[in-house]
Design brief:
Length: 391
């Protein structure tokens, strides 16, 4: 065998948080892993907080703990969420409390780059992972193995290919999966601020009268992270504003709840859509993360959904019968079945909420706010919602 032909158990294509977690999780089961991904970009010295922030659930924290990545994070840079307050567009309010739900916290707010750098360090110390900082450009699936051709001339032979290469997945295109996409015609505007009033480890979300959604998530040191799901034209205006003007716009949208805001770092926008895939597996191929599904960020669950894909795939592969190889269709179908309900339920819930709050008119507004008040008065329903969000 030449240096240009290498054999592995699994090849993971894609290097975001989900792909790197997949490589690490499978390597911890003693499998030889090829990771086709780029290392995280260096963190700028003057950057106070990352623009990309995630609300990680209990299930995501548990996975990162098993990977021994959570313990390595700088915990001074993490913020727990003990309370969540959601405001309708006509006085209705929902309050979720970790104390009432009898859980340590509802979520952890973490910076993407913080987790990714910790993952990179763990992967470099993992002897079962070989890192290829290049891209995949050819996939040939045979009955006994999959052949992955890389741009640097190396050909990887593997029992299984894991596509973790994002919403525009190359691996998904190679397996011929059908994608249905619904463009929300909204852009998620993200930016970070210093607040003059304490956030008290509370996440806030407002459904506004012009049918947009504004969320402020707690960060350490009295800072907050904005996620504003705005109409595409409005989002372009928001991103173009000077920092002081953007801060004033957010103060107005959030009714000054956290006092004066000071912008720290640039604002960024990303298009929002719902994306469903007709299948998560094909012969010797499995999809995880955004390659497998995209949902609206209003519940902050997209990353948690992807990390649950990883946990489930690792669990299925670790329990395989001795006579099966890792690309066995029976194993892959087990993985797909284990994920269908979770993905379907979250896609339905987030899409349904987005549609509910996008209906114009007095009657629609009255009905949805009455519904919110009804949920708020039902402790069992609220507990169920919290447990669903915790994964």
């Amino acid at each position: 065998m030449t240096a240009h032909h290498q054999t592995f158990h699994v090849a993971v294509v894609g290097g975001g948080l989900v792909g790197k977690c997949a490589a690490l999780a499978l390597a911890q089961h003693g499998l030889r892993i090829a990771l086709i991904a780029q290392p995280a970009a260096p963190r700028p010295a003057d950057m106070l907080f990352d623009a990309r922030i995630y609300a990680l659930s209990a299930s995501s924290q548990a996975l990162l703990e098993r990977l021994r990545v959570w313990q390595a994070l700088d915990h001074d840079r993490l913020s727990p969420v003990y309370d969540m307050r959601v405001y309708g567009d006509a006085q209705a309010e929902l309050h979720f409390s970790a104390f009432q739900a009898a859980v340590p916290q509802l979520a952890w707010i973490v910076e993407s780059s913080l987790v990714e750098h910790s993952l990179d360090a763990a992967l470099r110390f993992q002897p079962h992972v070989t890192w290829f900082d290049t891209r995949a450009q050819g996939l040939d699936v045979k009955t006994d193995a999959a052949m992955l051709a890389l741009a640097n001339g190396v050909v990887i032979e593997a029992d299984l290919i894991v596509g973790a290469d994002g919403a525009h997945s190359w691996v998904r295109a190679q397996m011929g999966a059908e994608v249905t996409r619904r463009d929300y015609r909204q852009t998620g505007v993200v930016a970070n601020f210093k607040a003059s009033k304490p956030h008290r480890e509370t996440a806030y979300q407002w459904f506004t009268e012009d049918r947009e959604i504004v969320a402020l998530l707690p960060l350490p040191g009295g800072h907050v992270s904005l996620v504003w799901s705005a109409r595409a034209d409005h989002a372009r205006e928001l991103v173009a504003l000077a920092p002081a003007q953007l801060a004033a716009a957010v103060e107005r949208a959030t009714h000054g709840r956290l006092g004066e805001l000071e912008c720290v770092g640039a604002a960024h926008g990303f298009p929002l859509s719902l994306q469903r895939v007709d299948r998560l597996v094909a012969p010797r191929v499995a999809l995880v993360g955004d390659a497998a599904h995209l949902i609206h960020p209003l519940a902050g669950q997209g990353m948690n959904l992807g990390l649950r894909d990883v946990a489930s795939l690792a669990d299925v592969l670790s329990k395989k019968e001795a006579f099966r190889d890792l690309g066995d269709p029976v194993l892959l179908r087990r993985y797909e079945r284990s994920r269908r309900e979770d993905i379907g339920a979250l896609a339905l819930a987030t899409d349904g909420l987005q549609r509910l709050f996008s209906f114009p008119g007095f009657f629609a507004r009255t009905a949805r706010n009455a519904g919110m008040s009804l949920v708020g008065a039902q402790p069992l329903v609220k507990r169920w919602l919290v447990s669903a969000a915790l994964g």
